[in-house]
Amino acid sequence: MENGAAQPVIVAIDGPSGTGKSSTSKAVASQLGLSYLDTGAQYRAITWWMVNNGIDTDDPSAIAAAAGKPDIVSGTDPSNPTITVDGADVAAPIRTQEVTSKVSAVSAVAEVRARITELQRSIAATAEQGIVVEGRDIGTTVLPDADLKIFLTASPEARAARRSGELKGADVNATREALIKRDAADSTRKTSPLAKADDAVEVDTTELTLAQVIECVVTLVEEKRAAK
Ligand SMILES: Nc1ncnc2c1ncn2[C@@H]1O[C@H](COP(=O)(O)OP(=O)(O)OP(=O)(O)O)[C@@H](O)[C@H]1O
Ligand SMILES: Nc1ccn([C@@H]2O[C@H](COP(=O)(O)O)[C@@H](O)[C@H]2O)c(=O)n1
Q1: Domain hosting residue 38, numbered range
Q2: Which Gene3D superfamilies does the record associate with it (predicted)?
């Protein structure tokens, strides 16, 4: 673009659990001066609220009726991403095993997705320099006009090994089975399932270091920016 500030760039990064979406998105956003949005944290936050407020997470109509109640706020600084529910910092409690085991059921409810999708679009629309948004349906549903769409993949074995390393001592086979189960639920739900957009660039990270994945995505974003 001539004689003006760079136009904001919108980057969508999707993929199954443990493929490196969060680590890659945060690093890319930091390097390029963009905002960062972790949409999984938003679905975890609404799930945490449902559990804390006694909503039966096996009852889609109870979830749908309560979907509009919690006030979820995401901070988009990639060096300090934050998430609050009704003003309370929930960054730690949304990562518990209980929330992880229930989030796919809650996020499958159409009323939940409509609410969170609206929030995501308004955050992306107000990011002055642009934003990296990571999740499961960003390229397909939330931001179908994103400037760049990336779909990260990795073998279940690689993903389980990465997660077990994080969870210090967790059984790799159990971790692998849990990842596969969550991916299956996320990929087969009716509303906005986990899917690669037709125009997304697929990056298989199985044999790549995190630094290599980050470099690859930074290059792709820079190419898009130069072409704008
Ligand atoms: N290419 C890679 N090589 C080795 N480890 C990696 C790579 N990418 C990410 N990791 C590590 O794997 C773990 C999972 O990464 P990350 O949380 O970024 O994945 P994710 O796709 O966001 O997962 P989820 O969807 O479950 O939140 C982290 O510990 C991260 O440091
Ligand atoms: N765009 C998205 C993002 C996430 N979800 C659901 O949230 C769960 C947790 O995501 P993490 O990235 O924090 O592991 C995920 O398993 C999905 O159920 C979603 O539906 N759409």
Answers
A1: 9-220
A2: P-loop containing nucleotide triphosphate hydrolases
